[in-house]
Amino acid sequence: MSLVIKGASLLGQQTRDLYVDDAGVLVDEAPSGAETIDADGLVALPGLVDLHTHLREPGREDAETILTGSQAAALGGYTAVLAMANTSPVTDTAEAATRVWELGREAGLVHVQPVGAVTRGLAGEELAELGLMHRSRAAVNVFSDDGKCVHDARVMRRALEYVKAFGGVVSQHSQDPALAGPAACCHEGELSGRLGLPGWPGIAEEVIVARDVMLARHTGSRVHVAHVSTAGSVEVLRWAKARGIEVTAEVTPHHLLLTTDLLTGYDPTYKVNPPLRPQEDVDALREALTDGTIDAVATDHAPHARHDKEHAFVDAAFGMLGIETALGVVRTALPDLSWSDVARVMSTTPARIAGLAEQGRPLEPGSPAHVVLVDPDTAVTVDRDASASLSRNNPWHGRSLTSRVVHTVYGGRVTVRDGALA
Ligand SMILES: NC(=O)N[C@@H](CC(=O)O)C(=O)O
Ligand SMILES: [Zn+2]
Ligand SMILES: [Zn+2]
User: Fold this and answer.
1) Which residues of this protein are catalytic (predicted)?
2) Count of domains forming the chain
3) Can you tell me the mean pLDDT for 167-184?
4) Residue with the nearest Cα to atom 4 of ligand 1?
């Protein structure tokens, strides 16, 4: 089915029509018999790419499936997601990775790119089948034990050396387990003491970021820092980038807008790893994203079933939803970020980090038609029950966010039309 997207403003700049042929590629001239999408007043961006999504299938299909997570992603304006490996079983073999990739293709709403585990069973000891996962049909390029930190420096060094051979990257969940143990759930500071919650100090993140930067320099391999949350980590990244070390980093939407003081109500919706931080950290993260020290926004969409989340704060699961609301949160947190910067941090750069050649491409003839059309100024009030996700741990419920995803086009196919699944 060919398309004419009429009157969109490309990256918020010049207004032009976009033409998509029936092979799903952007072309020069209007194809005959095309469906027309009226995009008057809308901003066109390349489809968003999420470096960090938890789809929960296989194993926790009560919290999310590859299909429902893909639906949520499309509604958020995404055309590709990297599906984290902390499923059950873990994505630590070529067979497991290929299965996730196939289920993504069957769902057909976004490109689902499996992330491979760094270590077998996320146990932090033996390397997983990194090479076999890379050479499988899933072509895994990003490896992560996310949910857990690869805390043994020798294992991390070997993983970096291994993936260097094929240009892969290790995405690290930076949490020193001795400085922030499994119960740590509130930013360590005056408030954690007052609330009586186990503290998760920023230094537990920063020491791992610093160590990994040095391992990246030593091995000449690539490290990606997942969900950066502190000003100290930003300083380390700035230092490393100034020296040309191959490190990239992501920040989540929630760490750009929410702060520790939300924990005073002990609502487990706000329990997330790493924890929400004070305003000084939030300010440093915003500045770092704007100046390029942090490369990308990644959602860390972490759906959890009610019976895992509805507990006393210390017992509840870590994680919050984020893929349907990411663009609105970024626009609300950083209203002055230009649309070309939004495209850079939410599409072009994440696609490059993940090695997805078909994604994050400029909206020009020859590119695959992965496009999101956004109403830039409309405020939307989030309703957690209107979500495509199977889970309801949505920290944005009832909040007003700027901008609305109106249409999403994945490979020339309209996946979202007028804000609803097509
Ligand atoms: N972010 C979270 O709080 N939770 C993630 C794991 C992770 O990203 O570390 C999850 O899998 O639920
Ligand atoms: Zn993590
Ligand atoms: Zn995660």
Assistant:
1) 300
2) 1
3) 98
4) 319
- 300 labelled catalytic: yes
* Nearest-CA residue for atom 9 of ligand 1: 147
Q: Which residues pair with 20 in a beta bridge?
A: 3, 26
Query: Does 300 sit in the ligand 1 pocket, CB within 6 Å?
Result: yes
Q: Is residue 238 part of a domain?
A: yes
* C-beta of residue 366 within 8 angstroms of C-beta of residue 24: no
Alpha-carbon span 375 to 70, nearest angstrom: 21
Is 13 a member of any domain? Answer: no
Closest C-alpha among 117, 110, 121, 113 to residue 143 = 117
Q: State the pLDDT confidence band at 1, using cuts at 50, 70 and 90.
A: confident
173: annotated binding-site residue?
Answer: yes
Q: What is the distance in A from the centroid of ligand 2 to the CA of 139?
A: 22
Residue ID of nearest Cα to ligand 1 atom 3: 319
pTM (predicted TM-score): 0.98
Residue 160 CA to chain centroid, in angstroms? 21
Q: Are 411 and 380 in contact (CB under 8 A)?
A: no
Residue 267 inside a domain? The answer is yes
Is 54 assigned to a binding site?
A: yes
Q: How far apart are CA 180 and CA 187, in angstroms?
A: 10
* Domain CATH code at residue 133: 3.20.20.140
d(CA 399, CA 380): 8
Say if ligand 1 is within 6 A of residue 130 CB.
no
393 is in an annotated binding site: no
Sign of CA dihedral 184, 187, 190, 195: negative
147 lines ligand 1 (CB under 6 A): yes
pLDDT tens figures, 122-136: 999 999 999 999 999
352 assigned to some structural domain: yes
Tokens found for residue 376: 């830039």
Q: Which domain holds residue 345?
A: 47-361+379-398
